[in-house]
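Dear colleague,

Following up on Tuesday's group meeting, I ran the structure prediction for the three-component complex that the binding team flagged. I've pasted the input sequences exactly as they went in, so you can double-check that nothing got truncated or mislabelled along the way. The structure tokens for the whole assembly follow below. Feel free to forward this to whoever is handling the docking comparison.

Inputs:
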Amino acid sequence: MFRKSLVLLSILLFLLTIGFGKTLQFWATPFVSQPEKFFEPLVKQFKAETGIDVEISVVSYADAVTKIQAAIAAGEAPDLVALSEGRFMPLVRFGNALYELDEFVTDDLLKRVVRPQLLDQYRQIAGGKLYVFPICFWTYLGAINLDIFKKAGVPEEFIEKMTDPNKYYTWDDLLQLGAMVTKDYNGDGKVDHWLYAYPGGENWVHPFLLWYWNAGGSPTLLDENGKPAFNTEATIRALKFLLTLKEKGYMPPGVESLSAGDAIDMFTSGKTAFINNVWPSNAFVVWPKQFKNLNFRLVYPPVGPTGLRTTYFGSYLLAIPRQSKMKREAWKFIEFLLRPESQKYISANTYYSSITGDVPDEFKGDPRVKMYMEVVKYAIPEPMHPAMARWKMIYNSETQAVLSGQKTPEEAAKTMQKLAEQALEFYK
Amino acid sequence: MKRRKNLMWYFRKYKFDLFLALPGILLLVIFYVAPVIAVFFVSFTRWPIIGAPKWIGLKNYQMLMSDRIFFKSLLNTLYYAALIVPSLTIFSFILALILRAITKGREFFKAVFVFPMVVTLVSTATIWKGLFLPFGPINAVLEFLGLPTVQFLSAEHVKNSLSFILIWRDVGYFSIFYLAGFEQIPTEIIDAAKVDGANALQRFTYIIWPMMRPIVVLVSILSTIGSFMIFTLVYVTTRGGPAYSSEALLNYIYDVGWKEFRMGYAAAAAVVYFVILFLLNSFQRLVFSRE
Amino acid sequence: MSRKSRWVVYSFAIFWLIMVFFPFVWAFRISLIPTYTTYVSFFPRSLSELSLVNYKYLLYQTKFPRWLLNSLIVSGTATFLNTIACFMLGYVLARKRLPGSDWIFTMVLALMMVPYQITIISLYLGLSKVGLTNNLLGLILPMSAHPFGVFLMRQYILMIPKDYEEAALIDGSTRFQALFRIVLPQTLPAIGVLLVSMLIETWNNFILPLVIITKTSLKTVTVGVADLAFEILNTNWGVLMAGSLLGALPTIIIFVIFNKYFLKGLTLQGGIK
């Protein structure tokens, strides 16, 4: 009896997993902490208007491309995928996996996009065709822990240098800050606060690039001849600076194996005084809610040794896999997300910038929003080269090697160059 | 014609046995034997999953020979095995001796020691990742005791830390094997040896060791296979970092195969891995079964 | 045994007991923290510091319950099929009625030495060609026969005397009846062992669901828990720990109930080789 019921039960459950009905499969990367919950009201309204349901699966940034490729190989690609600048080219280049959006895009829509040059960039890298459409974008600011600054007696003018758009602070200032902040405060013989934690153990795109670009590195990671630009002055300067921070003890121990989340945890738990990758949803939504005791203030990015001011520019790109059988419906959903009301909802809940410029009224007077908009002019979009996934692994692991003392910055830069060029062989 | 008749006859005679044996044999052939053979074939191709495989001969193997990260992860894997297998073999023996000496509550302690093995390795790994944080609880305890703190997941210590998790997990499990072995040694023999004046060392070498040796072989082979579970640990805790210092070969195969979609290349790495494993296993058997 | 050495033995056993449970107790403590941090004191100052918010989050706002269900379906079905297949094949191999039985047994022994993880590439390629990726069947079938299970069954049935079976056959019962009325009841202890250890093994399986399942709603709990860490931008240790503990709970419950069987099974393995 027991066995029979077991067999019956499992057959029933198989049927359930197959599922019925007209549903868009949307694979969303976690640009906010709970994408399903975030999209829920939008999906509800979309269903009420069109009768099309949207099922959201969260796919981590790290696995997004892999999982999409695997799904395509198995012939069961989703109808809509979320990507980033660094992630859509491999899908375009290998297997021609994404569908051209040009036939859907109307002039009316193009007129509403506040940053049309973005679309041009996406077209340019992909041979003139548009494969992705952004629904919002964001930049990174820095942040400082005011309580630690106060405890360490950092002069007011320092804070002013970091927060006044007409003033600036340099890498040397950061070193000076490090000396002031990194101290044993309670006299137990142990350091209580550090300046900065570099997320060395994480395979993310931006932590290394923030310093590399700031040191004068190439925005596209390519030199003027179209070769990878890793064995450069900029790489060595960036790595040297990180190594100095580590060697002087301004970074907490163990940074070479710290994940990005853990590095942020170091700041939010009051262990480090400075952080350089604060995206809007953290600054406006997550931190004020989760860390009520954290007394932080947003600061501008530093000025690098070559006098450059840079930061990161990211956007939430949507694409439709060629295999999808519901391309028109998928585009309908993208269009729905680009409506002024939807755009306002997105901005209001994530604080990311609306791609059509439709922001809620309360944003207009917010000085923090103003700061984020201010840095857009020198923010650099993620490099879009198809080899990015591999390059990212290469520069991250070489940076780990430097931080864990296995290689000098010069050696690491050389290895990066060699491996990056080798990787191109496969992407020919 | 005649042959066909024979086949039918054969089928009729063994109808019942065939009916019993076929599901198992088919499943084993399809999901164990065929994949092993297929991996060899795939290793001679270039196959980005999408599209058909292309025969490229030994090229994957040639590329492997100059692949720095492949050798690094191969060495890491051997390091893991070299640390985990002897530690498990020895420490679980010691733990079994302790269990044997426990008279009250032995069943309770047996269950306790096996417990980590029952918990999903993914959960265990996630929890240990938290314990190993730079300012995590272990370092807090060390600091409390006035000892220097350790960066468990730094390039220097990461392999040892991950090995420790696996040893911690499996040592109780394997000690039960030894305990079962001890229980097979008749106490009368040992008592008789004692009466005859054999000292502890002699009793060990002449009575206990010969009876325990098959179990030592079993434990060392099972723990060699168990040490490949390091894949899950590395995947959950470090994903191979820092700077590939914890990358195990299986993780590399996964990265190459599923992150870069070079299935043929990954298969070639798997074949090399398989050959090394086979040699290791034969070596183990040779060492222990030498009379 | 002297008092002193007994003291040493027990204190070591208790030390290892603490080592075994400390991680889980710590994880439980962290899972009760409502914020995104691990940096809290181990002992809460008041009960109001504790909250079940992470468990609520997991159960109501992620697909965690679905992952649990998937794991239960996969482990349950695979273990069930596995036990039947292994019992039947093990019986045939033990009684050596089929020509080539020894040859098949050698194959089984050889397969025990191959870590299946190595075959994951061809397994994946094969399953994707027949459309079994992103399908729970693709997880169940590869786990439905295990060389170790066949080995265990064969060795155990070898120890059961043939006489009863033969007597039953003489008394006019069919071979099918003889197998299920006579042999099966006597094999029950080994079947119990196999059920429990395979349930734990299939529940633990990680690499297979990792490569075969990409849909969130089809993940098993092991992959789901591992992905939790990467799905949330700010690592939420509370949720991770809650997930780790909840994900391990089913096997822990089974172990607590059936630990005698499981331990006996280990003893059996130790005795067989």
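The mean pLDDT of chain C is 83.

Cheers,
M.
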